[in-house]
Amino acid sequence: MVRHSFAGVGAGLVRKSTIVEIITMLLIVLFIYTGLSKMMDHTNFKYQLNRSPFIQPISNFIATVLPAGELLIASVLLFKRTRLAGLYASFFLMVLFTGYIFMMLHFSYDLPCSCGGVLAKMSWHDHLLFNSLFTLLAMVAVILENDINVKSRRVFTMH
């Protein structure tokens, strides 16, 4: 009976772990792509940020810190020891991005796009949906990773 309950916990952890791995890989790809796109076209990225009515006063700071921050988050997500911190950072950054897009759509007269690559081809509404999806994915990964960590500790302390 005890072995059966451990097997059930193990199978559940494997499923959750697989979901977290998939979401983590998606976030890594997203942040590497967007971070490198902003670095490769840094002049345009900085120019577009300067046009934003909400962040114009700190646009130079954001233009410098954001691409490096995205790449840093991607690297933190790579390692199991730092993954949970990277997932929290991903969720926080995606909430900021999604909130910014929401504010721009509802309160801005001008909609400059500072994204690079393929994402620059999206409409602002598409961006809002895309970012909302990634925000939700990051939140799910945080919840699952926390649950995995708690259950793993519980299983190992029972032995």
- Proportion of beta-strand residues: under 5%
| Low-pLDDT sequence parts | 1-6
Number of strands: 0
User: What number of domains?
Assistant: 1
In this structure, how is the largest beta sheet organized?
A: none
Q: What is the terminal separation in angstroms?
A: 15 Å
Shape: elongated
Mean pLDDT: 88
Helices and strands, in order, run as HHHHH
Subunit arrangement of the protein: single chain
Radius of gyration: 19 Å
Specify the structural class.
mainly alpha
Number of helices: 5
Share of helical residues: over 70%
What would you note in describing this structure?
- There is one protein chain.
- With 159 residues, the protein is mostly helical.
- It has one domain.
- Helix content is 82%, strand content 0%.
- The chain is built from five helices and no strands.
- It has helices spanning 2-40, 42-51, 59-77, 80-107, 124-158.
- Helix 1 runs antiparallel to helix 3 and helix 4 (80-107) packs antiparallel against helix 5 (124-158).
- The longest helix is centred in the first third of the chain and has 39 residues, at 2-40.
- The radius of gyration is 19 Å and the shape is elongated.
- The two termini are 15 Å apart.
- Mean pLDDT is 88; it is low at 1-6.
